[in-house]
Design brief:
Elements: E1 2-4, H1 5-8, H2 22-35, H3 38-45, E2 46-54, E3 59-62, H4 63-72, E4 76-88, E5 93-104, E6 110-121, E7 124-135
Parallel strand pairs: 2-7
Antiparallel strand pairs: 1-4, 2-3, 4-5, 5-6, 6-7
């Protein structure tokens, strides 16, 4: 699925926006990052003890450091989600994993393997762990 940010940012996902599923949250994440509202989005979904493992220059980020980094990052102008998978990890855990291409305004595009673990706390799904591992596809072009 190829998504141009300007045509897909901010669209609601699903019928129950008060309690979106981990999969809905994951897709909403990319719309928020495309709209330049990623920090606000993450503030609402990151668990207090969340950790994000992302490519350089950041590496491993706690919740507040992640919010600051996202607030200062350029928006995503184009992204493509490939081979999306999801699995429950028991009644209060869930993982989504996929490959994706993303290009931020003013930066080269990258391919990455993404995995996000969600936990159910306070009667809602929260992002506990999010990892982006770069994948070398050679040219950096979308497939």
């Amino acid at each position: 699925m190829v998504t141009q940010a300007e045509t897909n940012a901010g669209k609601p996902v699903g019928d129950n926006t008060a309690d979106p599923s981990p999969t809905e949250i994951e897709f909403e994440q990319w719309r928020a990052l495309s709209a330049g509202t990623g920090a606000e989005f993450y503030d609402g979904v990151l668990a207090d003890d969340a950790v994000l493992a992302v490519p350089s220059p950041h590496s491993s980020l706690s919740r507040q450091i992640a919010l600051n980094a996202v607030a200062g990052a350029p928006p995503i102008e184009t992204y493509q989600i490939l081979e999306f998978h999801e699995r429950p990890l028991g009644p209060d855990g869930y993982i989504v994993f996929y490959e994706m291409y993303q290009k931020r305004v003013g930066l080269d595009g990258i391919y990455a393997a993404i995995s996000t673990v969600y936990i159910r706390r306070d009667n809602r799904w929260q992002m506990q762990y999010h990892q982006q591992t770069p994948i070398n596809r050679g040219s950096g072009e979308q497939r």
